[in-house]
Design goal:
By secondary structure, this protein is an alpha+beta fold. It is built from 9 helices and 5 strands.
Length: 260
């Protein structure tokens, strides 16, 4: 084989090897681009999912956003309490409660008739403050939805009766049945004349959601221990295991306070 032919073959082999190396480099680069695009795609999808999740969270947290619409006749500081009884009554019973709270139901079941009796006689006025603690502790929105519905009942002048119906029909604490507006409207049927188009719209629109949220914030700001919190003329009277409250004691305390 001539030297010239050897050089030609070697050059051909070298060119082929070089071309193979270049092809490998191109393949490696292409694979890198494909992997990079896939990573970007995954990250982009994650970002979209993250935005959707954040938006969903924002929607949930903002469900009670908007102007504070105070129920008609609400009173007390910042108009955050719903009244029972006559304004002329000398003594004031302040009750902080949550419609999903089992202990609140126990209190209502034990003291409802006594409270109504004292209020009807003009001896006691009651200020109900609504909290939404169970929603935060167990999840759900039944406390807020029920509080809003109670505000709607207040607009119709039927809060006390509806308040009692909600406690008499309170679901188990872990059952967020009051998150359903249809359930709250159904129970309103037990109160004569409450179920009207305006009441249903108020419940379904969440008219008093921001007001209920503000009421719950007031509860938190006051650093109260839990629900129910019951105060007579600003003094806590419920929850002392050493000196438990009874309906008879409540009557006596009110009588003594009115004498003073």
């Amino acid at each position: 084989m001539s030297e010239k032919n050897s050089e030609g073959k070697r050059s051909a082999r070298e060119r082929l090897a070089e071309e193979r190396e270049r092809q490998k480099a191109r393949d490696k680069k292409r694979r890198g681009l494909i992997v990079g695009a896939a990573v970007v795609g995954v990250l982009g999808l994650a970002a979209v999912v993250g935005v959707l999740a954040a938006s969903s969270g924002d929607d949930k947290s903002d469900s009670s956003a908007g102007p504070v619409v105070v129920p008609k006749g609400a009173n007390g500081k910042d108009q955050l309490s719903l009244p029972l009884g006559k304004d002329s009554a000398k003594s004031t019973l302040t009750i902080w409660e949550d419609f999903r709270c089992p202990a609140c139901k126990q209190f209502e079941d034990g003291y409802r008739s006594t409270i109504h009796e004292l209020a009807d006689k003009g001896q006691l006025k009651v200020e109900y403050h609504l909290a939404t603690l169970i929603d935060k502790n167990l999840g759900g929105s039944g406390s807020l939805r029920a509080a809003n519905a109670a505000g709607c009942a207040q607009d119709a002048g039927k809060f006390p009766a509806y308040h009692d119906v909600l406690y008499k029909n309170q679901p188990p604490e872990t059952d967020d049945a009051y998150s359903k507006n249809a359930k709250l409207i159904e129970l309103a049927g037990e109160v004569d004349g409450l179920v009207t188009d305006s009441f249903k719209k108020c419940v379904e629109d969440g008219t008093h959601d921001s007001w209920a949220t503000k009421s719950n914030k007031a509860f938190q700001d006051a650093k109260l221990q839990g629900t129910p919190t019951v105060e007579l003329d600003g003094k806590s009277i419920f929850g002392d295991q050493q000196n438990p409250l009874t309906p008879a004691k409540l009557k006596k305390m009110v009588e003594e306070a009115n004498k003073g």
